[in-house]
Each structure stands twice: as structure tokens, then as C-alpha cells.
Known about the structure:
This protein is mainly α. The chain has one domain (14-62). Helix content is 79%, strand content 0%. It has two helices and no strands. The longest helix has 27 residues, at 7-33. The chain is elongated, with a radius of gyration of 15 Å. It starts with 6 loop residues before the first helix and ends in a 5-residue tail after the last helix. This is Spore coat protein.
Amino acid sequence: MTKYLGLHETLDVHELLTFKNLCLTKAVTMSKLAQDEELRAILESDVTTGTQHIQQLQKFITDREVQ
């Protein structure tokens, strides 16, 4: 079975990827500026999770292998 995304699905994944990249950029920037340690820990956790989500979304676009 070949894995392909339809055009609308590819655009949806690209839209999600763009949004997650924006969120990741903001979390990284704000974690550097945060003075509260608890807030900094939350932001750093969000950076880790966001990075994993971006990698998963990228796999949807780049993995087109035949199974």
C-alpha cells in the first residue's frame, strides 16, 4: 500500500506545521525572557513537546515510501 496525502491534506499539514513553528519560536523566545522559574519550566517543556510535534508533522509530508 502506498501512502499519499491528498492536496487538501498536504495543505492542512503544512498549515499545522507553520503554526507549530510559530508557537515554538515564541516559546523559545519567551523562555529566555521569563524571570519566573515555574513559567520558564513550562515554556521549556512546551519547546520539547513542540519540537516532537513538528518532527511528526514533517514525517507526514516527507515519508512517501511504499509499504
